[in-house]
């Protein structure tokens, strides 16, 4: 049960962005999606969020195929994109209210959920502050609060910690793990920052549109006979070889 | 439940557009300054040169300022509609468009809400402008202020739809500036907003025909007649038809893949 992807394929004209990608997200866990730039991570996210229409393959939610309309999937998904999507002119609360309205949530529901989430994310005292006045780490927290406002069971994070300092990155990482644990949230976390992944985390390795691995990090290390996931990843994607060529 | 969710979304989008408008107060002022300049400076200068004979819906000779008032009201709607659409291009470039696209509610409804929000904000500016017109003795009938409302709403929806369609086809904000020059100015100047079409015909037959097929001309005439408590049926039909066509085109342009792939 949960989110399952079967034989997903996608082309941009002649270029194959995703080729026969299949996986099932481990429910209630942080699933890491690892891949270098151009691996197809953003295309995969665009397909999962239905910003792109499916060309080939299938996405199943709770063992039911998601075809048009995709409203059921969208109700279950919370998304944080790599690029900030907050409205800078509005306050923290106003951004949350707007998101709630787009999901048809009543103001009472939004207020209750926003209060809980902002307290949980240490943003309660910033609720009336403009987004412009927040630093990068706080903005990311607001985006996470917004993504969780409508009570999704699956959270998609697309390189959500890019551009943040180490402390902010660690804080968000810790927070997401706590949410997984406390709320049985299923998370797909696309990243190229390998230090964000724990050895027990299920990891998907995507490279040139193909899924190279789908296993816990320590299992991938064992199979690749490497000490760290970074080494395993490098071996799999042959970055070492390409660097030598350069 | 679904209807209730749609109404909540409408309220949320209206609130968001209103808040953004409040944050951009200069937009309100510039929206008024532009037509006021036309009314106070341009019209004064051209009053003597451009005599306006008795043409419907006017019952008597009118001043040039009186003639251009409906055109300037539509000018506000035109600029505001396009500027709001420009904000959609900005939203897409900045990524905040995704927030809208990820809503589980029907996209056609969300875009319609956006159009309503654009129209309502534009109406506030139009009525403020008409109010200022009273200060300089440009006084349409009081009842006309009420009868013109549906015409203004329809015109705002038409121009908003055209703007949304254009913004759905534009990849970058920079390109939009070019389209503004190729769409807004020709649309405004090649219409009956500033001069009656018979006057245009005296000077150039082909320009007259271009003005005649310009939907903005018919929107201006719809507003002009409605402001004098009359209905111009052909203008109503053309404006309604144009609104419907561009709404469909805008919805088509904002299909998920179309928008998302422009990133």
Automatic annotation (TrEMBL), chain A:
Domain ABC transporter: 3-233
Highest taxon, organism lineage: Bacteria
Record's keyword terms, sorted: ATP-binding, Nucleotide-binding
GO molecular function: ATP binding; ATP hydrolysis activity
PANTHER family: ABC TRANSPORTER G FAMILY MEMBER 20 ISOFORM X1, ATP-BINDING CASSETTE, SUB-FAMILY H, MEMBER 1
Stated name of the protein: ATP-binding cassette domain-containing protein
Species whose genome carries this gene: Marinobacterium marinum
Automatic annotation (TrEMBL), chain B:
Transmembrane keyword on record: yes
InterPro entries assigned: ABC2_TM (IPR013525), ABC2_TM_bact-type (IPR047817), ABC_2_transport (IPR000412), Alc_ABC_transptr_permease (IPR022403), T7SS_ABC-Transporter (IPR051328)
Primary site of residence: membrane
Protein localization: Cell inner membrane; Membrane
Keyword Membrane set for record: yes
Bilayer topology term: Multi-pass membrane protein
Domain ABC transmembrane type-2: residue ranges: 26-257
Molecular function per GO: ABC-type transporter activity
Coiled coil: none
Keyword vocabulary terms for this entry: Cell membrane, Membrane, Transmembrane, Transmembrane helix, Transport
Domain of life assignment: Bacteria
Regions crossing the membrane: 36-55, 67-90, 111-136, 142-166, 178-198, 233-254
PROSITE patterns: ABC_TM2
GO CC annotations on file: ATP-binding cassette (ABC) transporter complex
Family, per entry: Belongs to the ABC-2 integral membrane protein family.
PANTHER family reported for this sequence: TRANSPORT PERMEASE PROTEIN (PTHR43077:SF10), TRANSPORT PERMEASE YVFS-RELATED (PTHR43077)
Protein name: Transport permease protein
Taxonomic lineage of the native organism: Bacteria, Pseudomonadati, Pseudomonadota, Gammaproteobacteria, Oceanospirillales
């Amino acid at each position: 049960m949960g989110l399952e992807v079967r034989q997903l394929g996608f082309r941009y004209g002649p270029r194959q962005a995703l080729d026969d990608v299949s996986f099932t997200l481990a429910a209630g866990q942080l699933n890491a999606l690892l891949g270098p730039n151009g691996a197809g991570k953003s295309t995969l996210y665009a397909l999962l969020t239905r910003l792109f229409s499916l060309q080939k393959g299938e996405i199943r939610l709770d063992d039911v195929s998601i075809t048009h309309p995709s409203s059921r999937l969208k109700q279950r998904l919370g998304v944080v994109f790599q690029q900030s999507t907050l409205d800078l002119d509005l306050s923290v609360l106003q951004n949350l209210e707007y998101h709630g309205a787009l999901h048809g949530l009543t103001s009472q529901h939004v207020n209750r959920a926003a209060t809980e989430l902002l307290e949980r994310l240490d943003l309660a005292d910033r609720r009336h502050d403009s987004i412009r006045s927040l630093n990068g780490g706080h903005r990311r927290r607001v985006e996470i609060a917004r993504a969780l406002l409508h009570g999704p069971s699956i959270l998609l994070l697309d390189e959500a910690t890019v551009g943040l300092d180490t402390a902010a990155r660690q804080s968000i990482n810790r927070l997401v793990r706590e949410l997984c644990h406390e709320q049985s949230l299923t998370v797909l976390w696309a990243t190229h920052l390998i230090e964000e992944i724990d050895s027990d985390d299920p990891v998907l390795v995507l490279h040139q549109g193909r899924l190279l691995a789908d296993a816990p990090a320590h299992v991938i290390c064992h199979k690749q006979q490497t000490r760290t996931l970074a080494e395993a990843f490098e071996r799999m994607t042959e970055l070492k070889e390409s660097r030598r060529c350069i | 439940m679904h209807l209730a969710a749609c109404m909540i979304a409408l309220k949320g989008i209206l609130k968001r557009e209103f808040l953004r408008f409040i944050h951009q107060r200069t937009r309100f002022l510039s929206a008024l300054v532009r037509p006021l300049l036309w009314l106070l400076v341009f019209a004064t200068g051209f009053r003597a040169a451009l005599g306006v004979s008795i043409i419907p819906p006017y019952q008597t000779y009118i001043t040039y300022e009186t003639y251009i008032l409906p055109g300037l009201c539509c000018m506000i709607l035109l600029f505001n509609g396009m500027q709001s659409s420009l904000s959609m291009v900005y939203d897409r470039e900045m990524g905040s468009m995704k927030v809208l696209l990820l809503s589980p509610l029907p996209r056609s409804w969300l875009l319609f809400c956006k159009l309503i929000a654009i129209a309502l904000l534009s109406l506030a500016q139009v009525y403020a402008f008409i109010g200022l017109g009273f200060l300089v003795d440009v006084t349409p009938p009081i009842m006309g202020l009420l009868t013109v409302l549906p015409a203004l709403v329809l015109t705002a929806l038409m121009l908003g739809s055209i703007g949304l369609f254009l913004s759905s086809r534009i990849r970058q904000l920079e390109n939009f500036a070019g389209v503004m020059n190729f769409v807004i100015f020709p649309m405004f100047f090649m219409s009956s907003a500033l001069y009656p079409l018979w006057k245009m015909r005296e000077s150039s037959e082909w320009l007259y025909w271009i003005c005649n097929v310009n939907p903005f001309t018919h929107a201006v005439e719809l507003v002009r007649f409605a402001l004098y408590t009359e209905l111009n049926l052909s203008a109503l039909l053309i404006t309604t038809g144009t609104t419907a066509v561009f709404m469909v085109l805008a919805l088509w342009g904002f299909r998920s893949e179309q928008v998302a792939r422009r990133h």
